[in-house]
Amino acid sequence: MAVLSPESIDNLKATKVIGIIGLGDMGLLYANRFTQAGWTVCGCDREEIYPSLLKQNFPFEVLPNGHYVSRKSDYIIYSVEAENIDTIVKIYGPSTKVGAIVGGQTSCKFPEISAFEKHLPKDISIISVHSLHGPKVDTTGQPLVLIPHRCSNENFDFVESLMSCLKSKHVKLSYQEHDRITADTQAVTHAAFLSMGVAWHQHQQYPWETPKWIGGLENAKINISLRIYSNKFHVYAGLAITNPSAHEQILQYADSCNDLFTLMIQNKKKEFKERVLHAKEKVFGHLKQDHKLLLDDDVLQQYSLIGLV
């Protein structure tokens, strides 16, 4: 994938307008970074909070609603929750500027692409994106998925050049590949860490208050759990609930948790141990001779709970 020359990008900056529908945490991150890079940016959020947004003196133009953004923008990014994407595209999609490009920032692409195909005019190109990190993370070197669903090479080069200001690591995928990989790598993982937090809350025993959880690996798990809980719920709803590829994994996770709990209350220690070790062999068996994919114990010991509370 080749980014356009500096001269070509300067020409685009002089003629193209970037629109952001949804000025939440990630929408603001994109709007501010694009503006800092010299692009002309406009954005909007819910119409009832338009007056309060105007008072915040953002470095880009704030408009009353998505109709205004869609009419004047050459690339429109819907930065909204996956569960609301269809409703919002249905409202603002018909106002999209002729010949524009539309994309989304949701963590699940199936409902997003479906909404675009259903509600956008047929002459509109579709190029979606997904930064695989939260809004408080430096975008430099982070993975950024680009999804050229319906577009010309010229339009894709434009979007990729725009995204280059984030200094992220670009990955080109179809929306089906994106959702499958997201489900395989994040859905069940996040469900497990969320379950840990629920268990701590139910027992009123928190890892920073008891010596029960000690060591680098435990500290790493606790840090990840707390990081997930510090983000907004809709991100994980998008990963697990609206992603069809995640359903099988989530259901199997629930079944496995139920089976293991049943073995515990039945005091079947042998069967419990055999099942856990079988899972270990299934996942990590191929690493018996080569541990390069596993974190070194010395690295794990660097994780601590200092400063978390």
Name its key features:
single chain; 309 residues; alpha/beta; Rossmann fold; eight-stranded mixed sheet
Mean pLDDT: 88
Percent of residues in helices = 40-55%
The CATH class name of the largest domain reads: Alpha Beta
How many structural domains can be distinguished in the coordinates? 2
How many strand units? 8
CATH architecture of the largest domain: 3-Layer(aba) Sandwich
Largest sheet: 8 strands, mixed
C-alpha Rg (nearest Å) = 22 Å
Task: Summarize, please.
With 309 residues, this protein is an alpha/beta fold. It has helices spanning 6-15, 25-36, 50-54, 66-72, 85-92, 109-119, 153-163, 175-203, 216-229, 233-240, 247-265, 269-284, 297-300; strands spanning 17-21, 40-44, 61-62, 75-78, 101-104, 125-131, 143-150, 169-172.
Summarize the SSE layout with pairings.
Blueprint: H1 6-15, E1 17-21, H2 25-36, E2 40-44, H3 50-54, E3 61-62, H4 66-72, E4 75-78, H5 85-92, E5 101-104, H6 109-119, E6 125-131, E7 143-150, H7 153-163, E8 169-172, H8 175-203, H9 216-229, H10 233-240, H11 247-265, H12 269-284, H13 297-300
Parallel strand pairs: 1-2, 1-4, 2-3, 4-5, 5-6, 7-8
Antiparallel strand pairs: 6-7
